[in-house]
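ASSEMBLY PREDICTION REQUEST
Request ID: AP-0331
Submitted by: J.K., bench scientist
Number of chains: two
Total residues: 366
Priority: normal
Notes: Please return the full assembly, not individual chains.
Input sequences:
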Amino acid sequence: MIGKIVQTLGPWGPVLFGIGFLAPLIAQSMEALEIAAPFGLSFIQTGLLIGAGLGLAAKLRGRWI
Amino acid sequence: MNIAVTEPVTGAPAGEKSDRELAREELTIARKYIGPFPVVMAVWGLGNLVCWLALWPLVMTGTLSLWIAFPLATLNVALCYLPSHEAQHSNYAKSGEPLRWLNEFIGYVSTIPLVLPFKTARITHMDHHTYTNDPERDPDYGVKAANWWQAILTGIGRRQPGQPNAYGKLLRAKAEAGDETAKRAMMEGLAQTLSFWVILTALAWSGYAIEAALLWWLPRHIGMSYISLFLSWFPHHPMNEQGRYRNTRHFHYWFGNVVSFGMEHHIVHHLHPGIPLNRNAAAYRELRPILEKRGCRLDGV
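STATUS: Completed
Returned structure:
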């Protein structure tokens, strides 16, 4: 059961990391550094866009850097 | 693959000590350093964990600046492996001894900052000792690199998504062969890794993303690189020889033995894993004439 969940979610790890961790990290960093969010978006919306985007790119490329 | 398996010469010229005499002398010296409870390593392991845990409330309450806590957390993560390493070798207490619980406790909790599951570490590390520098069977062989900075880059490359995980592969092979300890190790490893990501995500969405990044996530990556470089690459480089007296070397690090976490004398650990880290240097000094006769790689001496 647990193995199946991990097998299903595992390949999506980078995207989950992008949404779960990078998104709020980007949002809170922008706020702390007083960087304005573009296009009238909120900090967290910007974080989610960038975080999920980076995660998806990492999933497709097979590497973050 | 250019791997040489080198064993000591068993015949001895007249006037020189025989292989058996050397082995007896080596064991006599080693036994002097094995035995007493390694208090230093136990205090190191538990104290380091307490320091790292204390950083969280100190930072979250604004008592300590995050910019001071970040390098401290990085140091804590880098330092957390070696006390667990002693536990992997049961150097605090062997199975059946009264303090066995403490051995296992230190093994499990000291590497929480590194998110390294104890059973996984123990199983894979024992295989590393058995098959040191074997390209197929040494789970740490992936650190092989031409120089130190390539070793760091290789380590970062191995942590990218989708890259083969040598530890996972080894555990899976053992589990499929019916090894119950390996099956348990896989479950514990999964639980610990998932817990790490759940805690990190929960902290991030609770408004502590920067704190989580600078107290755990980034220190863990820096710590893993440091540990891999000093505990795996430096002592075994260039990793092209096997055999008891040639698979590990003594080396001199530019910034000293303390900065290398005592790894200059890692050859002593491979020969006698029962000697705790804090006694390796003294044991090395006494063993050195024997190691020279054995043709060990005592680089930079």
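REVIEWER COMMENTS: Chain B has two domains: 1-33+253-301, 37-242.
SIGN-OFF: pending second reviewer
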